[in-house]
């Protein structure tokens, strides 16, 4: 396997030729904000727009999950332009995400908390008008609870269910603000092709998909 060398934030590193900048950075202990990236995916989803970096010689920031490394490349993860774009992407996400961390089963494991701390963005940001959804929570699976109101549309669960496992119980539906992850006919999870493996829960970066044993709402409702 051929490797090349590049510099990220003044740190000289080596990476496999063809590797994306995001993975080269993370492998070398350099954090770049990200939500939707999955290493095993053949193609990056590139939907969250959080992984912007600046590369010397480029006229604008690029997403690290789509940009392949090159010999001699010089990358800056903290440039003002890259940070501004990532902050805006995060604040837009947070404007439609119910922020109630104390009562969320994803608390402390939630990537939004880590991202907000890293990018110095308040979880209850007021930069954009709040637009929260009030969709029904699906507790029909014996294994997990799906709260679509907390979903950040990163696509990880869809990739796992469709591409990795080939089950295809869930996918994206609708466009714009209505866009959501759902079963194909919109039926409850328990009536879909879901086999209850829980792999979608394991890749969810927030508290949208949680195992029932972790769900205080479910416990309070007497469902577990
Ligand atoms: S991690 Fe690059 S766009 Fe989401």
List the helices and strands and how they pair.
Blueprint: E1 3-8, E2 11-16, H1 21-27, E3 52-55, E4 62-63, E5 74-76, H2 80-95, H3 111-119, E6 144-146, H4 156-164, E7 170-173, E8 180-183, H5 199-203, E9 209-211, H6 216-220
Parallel strand pairs: 1-5
Antiparallel strand pairs: 1-2, 3-4, 3-5, 6-9, 7-8
The structure holds FE2/S2 (inorganic) cluster.
Can you give a write-up of this model?
The protein has 224 residues and is α+β, with helices and mostly antiparallel strands. Helices cover 23% and strands 16% of the residues. It has six helices and nine strands. It has helices at residues 21-27, 80-95, 111-119, 156-164, 199-203, 216-220; strands at residues 3-8, 11-16, 52-55, 62-63, 74-76, 144-146, 170-173, 180-183, 209-211. Strands 2-1-5-3-4 form a five-stranded mixed β-sheet, sandwiched between helices. Helix 2 crosses helix 3. The longest helix is centred in the middle third of the chain and has 16 residues, at 80-95. The protein is globular and about 55 Å long. The mean pLDDT is 93. The structure holds FE2/S2 (inorganic) cluster. Residues 34-37, 46-51, 63, 65 line the site of FE2/S2 (inorganic) cluster.
């Amino acid at each position: 396997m051929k490797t090349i060398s590049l510099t990220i934030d003044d740190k000289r590193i080596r990476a496999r030729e063809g590797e994306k900048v995001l993975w080269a950075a993370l492998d070398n202990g350099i954090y770049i904000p990200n939500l939707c990236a999955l290493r095993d995916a053949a193609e990056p989803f590139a939907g969250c727009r959080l992984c912007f970096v600046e590369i010397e010689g480029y006229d604008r920031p690029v997403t690290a999950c789509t940009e392949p490394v090159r010999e001699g490349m010089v990358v800056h993860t903290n440039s003002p332009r890259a940070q501004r774009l990532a902050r805006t992407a995060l604040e837009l996400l947070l404007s439609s995400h119910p922020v109630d961390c104390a009562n969320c089963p994803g608390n402390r494991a939630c990537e939004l908390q880590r991202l907000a701390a890293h990018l110095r963005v308040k979880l209850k940001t007021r930069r954009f008008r709040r637009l929260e959804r009030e969709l029904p929570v699906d507790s029909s699976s014996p294994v997990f609870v799906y709260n679509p109101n907390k979903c950040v549309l990163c696509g990880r669960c869809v990739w796992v269910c469709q591409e990795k496992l080939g089950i295809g119980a869930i996918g994206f539906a609708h466009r714009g603000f209505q866009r959501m992850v759902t079963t194909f006919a919109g039926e409850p999870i328990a009536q879909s092709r879901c086999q209850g493996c829980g792999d979608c829960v394991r890749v969810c970066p927030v508290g949208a998909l949680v195992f029932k044993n972790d769900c205080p709402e479910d416990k309070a409702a007497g469902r577990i």
